[in-house]
Amino acid sequence: MTSAVSPTEPQGTPSLSDGLLHFPTSSALKLEPHLPPPRSSPSPTITMTNSNPNQKPFVTLTFATSLDSSLSLAPGVRTTLSGPQSKAMTHFLRSRHAAILVGVGTAVADDPGLNCKILSPLSSSPEGVGNGKREQHPNQPRPIILDPSARWEVSEKSKVVQLARLKQGLGPFIFTAKEVGEVPEERRAVVEGVGGKYVRVEGLKLKGEGKGEGATSRESFAWADVLRTIKEEGLDSVMIEGGGSVINSLLSLEQAGEQELVDSVIVTIAPTWLGAGGVLVCPPRAVGRDRQPAPPVRLRDVSWQPLGEDVVLCGKILR
Ligand SMILES: NC(=O)C1=CN([C@@H]2O[C@H](COP(=O)(O)OP(=O)(O)OC[C@H]3O[C@@H](n4cnc5c(N)ncnc54)[C@H](O)[C@@H]3O)[C@@H](O)[C@H]2O)C=CC1
Ligand SMILES: Nc1nc(O)c(N)c(N[C@@H]2O[C@H](COP(=O)(O)O)[C@@H](O)[C@H]2O)n1
């Protein structure tokens, strides 16, 4: 971790007095080959459904990791890994995606804002000399929370709700296996009151883990169903931020060569070891038909960009 920064403390950013972040154009240009096409207009408050729902959205897998592949010190502990410059990079990515997806574990642990705090390009410089005003970027991503059993106790106090109320972000779409009528009425009212909604995803599967005594099962959507639902909501691109269970389940599909869902991978690597007990990015190793380990997943078209004390790795999954 950086010299003066505690990983569990909120960290300083290259923000100006109003909290807005600046990401230099020169750094943004280096990311361009790894991004979806620019969004033409700000996200509408009411999303239009897509006329061609059969394709999937552009999928960017992006997260910040330590040198020992940890996303956080422990499950449920919000942990700062990105330094100021790479944090600004993440918020730039948020301006370039129609949606941002996290699992309910992250929503509960982090109470995230899931908005974009990048300065509007109309402000044209950190000092705001463009149109003379300093404004937040107009392209806000739609927060999506994967919450099959609707366990997230979203309320007026949730950061994502507060930001949407202030028009500094969009209301969340909560992907659940529940019928909308089964979701507690007060939570539904909060979410719908800021332009969000509960979205029922079909095709929930029970995944068994372990055998015999102590075996558990957990509910999981097929990723193809999640992505199709995102596209049907009129959202053409999604950045998948975490946490561990979301990232590992997505990577395990790529690892097994079962499905090719991820278009781009953008990882911030921070110069720190979080130690044992963290939430790891470590997908299960794929096994071939002969029961031997399958070739591991690798990135191609790789680029590395130092940002402050971190390095940002971009690539595409080698097919
Ligand atoms: N460093 C970073 O960039 C990030 C760090 N984090 C950290 O990760 C930790 C949370 O990670 P986890 O505990 O693994 O929780 P998680 O955020 O991955 O959520 C797990 C839950 O999401 C749901 N889920 C996941 N995959 C699903 C699927 N295919 N279908 C349906 N539902 C699905 C399930 O309900 C599951 O219990 C937190 O400590 C958080 O701070 C989270 C995001 C980014
Ligand atoms: N890029 C990045 N760097 C870190 O150090 C992080 N801890 C995270 N976490 C992700 O960002 C969310 C919190 O940020 P906001 O409140 O939404 O601004 C958190 O929930 C993770 O998804 N990311």
TrEMBL record:
GO terms for biological process: riboflavin biosynthetic process. Pfam families: RibD_C. Residues 57-313 form the Bacterial bifunctional deaminase-reductase C-terminal domain. Residues 1-16, 45-54 have a biased composition (Polar residues). GO terms for molecular function: 5-amino-6-(5-phosphoribosylamino)uracil reductase activity. InterPro entries: DHFR-like_dom_sf, RibDG_C, Riboflavin_Biosynth_HTPR. Its EC number is 1.1.1.302. It catalyses: 2,5-diamino-6-(1-D-ribitylamino)pyrimidin-4(3H)-one 5'-phosphate + NADP(+) = 2,5-diamino-6-(1-D-ribosylamino)pyrimidin-4(3H)-one 5'-phosphate + NADPH + H(+); 2,5-diamino-6-(1-D-ribitylamino)pyrimidin-4(3H)-one 5'-phosphate + NAD(+) = 2,5-diamino-6-(1-D-ribosylamino)pyrimidin-4(3H)-one 5'-phosphate + NADH + H(+). Pathway: Cofactor biosynthesis; riboflavin biosynthesis. Keywords: NADP, Oxidoreductase, Riboflavin biosynthesis. Residues 1-54, 124-145 are annotated as: Disordered. The keyword NADP applies. The keyword Magnesium does not apply. SUPFAM superfamilies: Dihydrofolate reductase-like. Catalyzes an early step in riboflavin biosynthesis, the NADPH-dependent reduction of the ribose side chain of 2,5-diamino-6-ribosylamino-4(3H)-pyrimidinone 5'-phosphate, yielding 2,5-diamino-6-ribitylamino-4(3H)-pyrimidinone 5'-phosphate. Belongs to the HTP reductase family. This is 2,5-diamino-6-ribosylamino-4(3H)-pyrimidinone 5'-phosphate reductase. The lineage of its organism: Eukaryota, Fungi, Dikarya, Ascomycota, Pezizomycotina.
